[in-house]
Amino acid sequence: MPETPAVTQVLTAAVEALGGQQRDGQVAMAEAVAAAMEDERHLLVQAGTGTGKSLGYLVPSLLHRERVVVATATLALQHQLVERDLPRLAEAVKGTPGVDTSYAVLKGRSNYACLHRVREGVPDDQGALVQMPEGSMGAKILELRAWAEKTAEDGGSGERDHAPRHTDREWRQVSVNHRECLGAAKCPFGQECFAELAKEKAHRSHLIVTNHSLLAIDAIEGVPMIPDYDVVVVDEAHELTARVTQAATDELWAAEVERSARRSQRYVDGSEADDLADAADALRSAMGEASPGRFETVPEDLADALVLVRDAARACISAYPKPDKDGDADAGRTQARGAVQEVFATAERMAAFSDADVLWMGEGTERIPPRLCVAPLQVWGTMRDKLLTDKTVVLTSATLMLGGDFGAVATGVGLKPTERVLEGAPADAHASGTGLPWRGIDVGSPFDYGQQAILYVARHLPPPGRDGLVKAQLDEIVELVDAAEGRTLGLFSSRRAAETAAEAVRERLPHLTTLAQGDAQLPELAKQFVADPHTCLFGTLSLWQGLDVPGDTCQLVLIDRIPFPRPDDPLMSARQKAADKAGGNGFMQVAATHAALLMAQGAGRLIRTTSDRGVVAVLDPRLATARYGGFLRSSLPPMWTTTDPAVVRKALARLSATAR
């Protein structure tokens, strides 16, 4: 068997073949990742934007003797890996002894078009499979069906990301979840199934690219979704706990219970489906009497209604006839029963009212009825027990050190600060004891933040209040945008604040183009923002993390206030209270950590290349005056800092003059 080449040797060859420039941080990262895989020791790697961290973990992953899973948070990064980085890397190192370049993409079943649903139709409320070609939605469904058929004919993946533009509701008409699936053996189109073909390819591949949610379902929920693997590399790891929480969150609507009852009436001969419909009415009534927000104690009527739904759903499932002896599957029956199983599982969890869960009711709107939600109080315990104990995990991101330390992120995923193996310690440190040893390294950034960026804290402004942006803040925004001549990305704590700021800038600086989130789809807004430097783009959370706009397009990043969680956020407030009860500082462990992570991500929008220059302007004086301000500032890149507005306006004016 040929000897596996050194990771630096393959990395150098790959960078040269790709026409790139090798960076010291990238080499240090690749060597650390390779060592972690070899020593079966967890690793946290902070790698700043521009380090080239994708190659820093992909090269050692290809060299590792066993299968490796790479999990990302965003579709954008997944697309980058699969469409750009991996094909080019595989070509660059093709034929190198000891390197297996096979890879595959694997997602949850509902991310693939279902050929049975495309060809046979969607169950109606009675469970019958019906075609839906009417109206504008019908036209879109026909377009999606035609795309799926063409993709099947061409041997494509059938992934949602490659489909024509559509809404979630439209996609549900051509896809199924795992409970609705007939199974490859029973489905008449099982041999062509996109999801099954993806699984087969994954079984044949050395490296599998997936997402945080599927990783959580496979490792933590215990539902086998991914072929056996030895190591998982979690990119965008700062989002892992949020994504795992999201994957473990369930919701329940009275209308959903009612619909599952109606669909069951076609298949259940007894009164069980009618009993489930009655339980739906009881749930709707109980929810109508309850107040939105977190339930520290569940109202008696609501608790009784959840038990009623749970028991009625269990009885309804039992009343379904057994599958046909000849193995033929009735798609309508399978999917109707799957809907009742979903209701039962969620109602059972909610009715248990476990201390490990947080239960709350969301406010309804004109279009969306109120819903019950249940989420885990914390996920670090299950991540530690179900993932970190069984696999070697490498976590990487540009923002893993909060307050200048790995402790907050490590604790959040289930690693203990006392288990950290410090640099210089032998590889087998902690090996003889209990616990999960881990290392944390910061490989730095190719950017000189002290020379390239200014952090401006508007200390003279009043602290932000509940009434949104005030005149002083709007004046400050207009003056800064005017000095920058546009070129501004505004990151706001709410849609209302973003729209208020956009309206003020449009009115007082009409010669600039000002865009607000909601004016168009985000890709279209980003395209307009890049096309014209005299443009401002104002928005909320999706802009904080998902936008990459290098160059003169973005020379000013505005942050209206420190992004603490809302005080009425049910899950965050519950976690903060639990941390206090355990003897910790709930505000720092939950609220300040949440804010630090978002601020670091938001500030990271400014400097994307070695030639970028600009200002991050925070309009919240608490960053300079509050006791926790130091923790937040030390979570940001090491920018030159000032509180003088005149200095900042002059700097922006010089930058805009240079960019003309």
UniProtKB/TrEMBL annotation:
Record-linked InterPro entries: ATP-dep_Helicase_C, DEAD/DEAH_box_helicase_dom, DinG/Rad3-like, Helic_SF1/SF2_ATP-bd_DinG/Rad3, Helicase_ATP-bd, P-loop_NTPase
Catalytic EC class: isomerase
Secreted found in the keyword field: no
Catalytic activity: ATP + H2O = ADP + phosphate + H(+)
Key words of the record: ATP-binding, Helicase, Hydrolase, Nucleotide-binding
Pfam family, one: DEAD
Keyword Hydrolase among record annotations: yes
Gene Ontology MF terms: 5'-3' DNA helicase activity; ATP binding; hydrolase activity, acting on acid anhydrides, in phosphorus-containing anhydrides; nucleic acid binding
EC number: 5.6.2.3
Cofactor(s) demanded: [4Fe-4S] cluster
Single GO BP term: nucleobase-containing compound metabolic process
SUPFAM superfamilies recorded: P-loop containing nucleoside triphosphate hydrolases
Gene3D superfamilies given in the database record: P-loop containing nucleotide triphosphate hydrolases
Domain Helicase ATP-binding: from-to ranges: 12-297
Similarity annotation: Belongs to the helicase family. DinG subfamily.
UniProt protein name: ATP-dependent helicase DinG
Organism: Nocardioides lianchengensis
